[in-house]
Write a structure and sequence with these properties.
Elements (H helix, E strand, L loop, with lengths): L11 E2 L10 E5 L10 H7 L4 E5 L16 H12 L7 E6 L1 H15 L6 E5 L17 H11 L4 H4 L2 H20 L12 E6 L7 H5 L9 E6 L10 H12 L1
Parallel strand pairs: 2-3, 2-4, 4-5, 5-6, 6-7
Antiparallel strand pairs: 1-3
InterPro entries: AB_hydrolase_fold, TEII, TesA-like, Thioesterase
Keywords: Hydrolase, Plasmid
Pfam family, one: Thioesterase
Length: 248
């Protein structure tokens, strides 16, 4: 498949195709998130960077499909769909659960000898750090309370019972995937790893963010921004600037 014939699919969305861009950025959404979260990123970085966003099953136009509640299984499935897009340098960006998923995809790529230009892990503790989290076992009210606390979803959306009914299965599956994930020790990544975190994020301590350094033999950088778990909603210009400088 040539670059000119690459198109959006159920798994991969290209909101602003940039066929002549010298590099690609592949974005992985947070728990309960969708590819459309990265529409503004694509709009800002195109046409200099070809931005792809992963759409997990079980949400939006894929809501009739079964959710995948395992990070390793989701990484395997995503990698299979991304294979046509490695014809040029690729940088991976993931937020929250998406950061863990991007890491597992990077591990698989390098194990196959496919180089990764860089990994950006946002709002997520290092894979080797573990917390005993059981939000995915709470009832619907408890799950929604946690989402509201993180301020990651528009309050108007959560106030619509019909929308809540549709999105809760995907949110619960994603939380289960993120909270039950356990890192399997193996070779370190060779690619540079950049960690982005909010200074008031209760889900990531400075120690947990710094522990990402243990997962690469390449360069490591830690950038702290003002804000909580979804700091990037308010710090988008600064985050995009970091990405532009890195990808070139």
């Amino acid at each position: 498949m040539t670059t000119d014939t690459l198109a959006a699919s159920a798994w991969v969305r290209r909101f602003h195709p940039a066929h002549d861009a010298p590099a690609r950025l592949i974005c992985f959404p947070h728990a309960g998130g969708s590819a459309s979260y990265y529409f503004p990123v694509s709009r800002q970085l195109s046409p200099g960077i070809d931005v792809l966003a992963v759409q997990y099953p079980g949400r939006q136009d894929r809501r009739a499909e079964p959710c995948i509640d395992s990070i390793p299984a989701l990484a395997d499935a995503v990698l299979g769909q991304l294979r046509p897009y490695f014809d040029r340098p690729v940088t991976l960006f993931g937020h929250s659960m998406g950061a863990t998923l991007a890491f597992e995809v990077a591990v698989r790529l390098e194990a196959e000898g496919i180089p990764v230009q860089g990994l950006f892990a946002s709002g997520r503790r290092a894979p080797s750090t573990v917390r005993d989290e059981t939000v995915h076992l709470k009832d619907d009210e408890g799950l929604l309370a946690d989402i509201n606390r993180l301020s990651g979803t528009d309050a108007q959306v959560l106030g619509d019972p019909e929308i809540v009914r549709m999105i809760l299965p995907a949110i619960r599956a994603d939380y289960r995937a993120a909270e039950t994930y356990r890192y399997t020790p193996g070779p370190k990544l060779a690619c540079p790893v950049t960690v982005l975190t909010g200074d008031a994020d209760s889900h990531v301590t400075p120690t947990e963010a710094g522990a990402w350094r243990q997962h690469t033999t390449g360069a490591f950088d830690l950038k702290v921004f003002p804000g909580g778990h979804f700091y990037l909603n308010d710090q988008a210009p600064a985050v995009l600037s970091v990405l532009k400088r890195f990808i070139g």
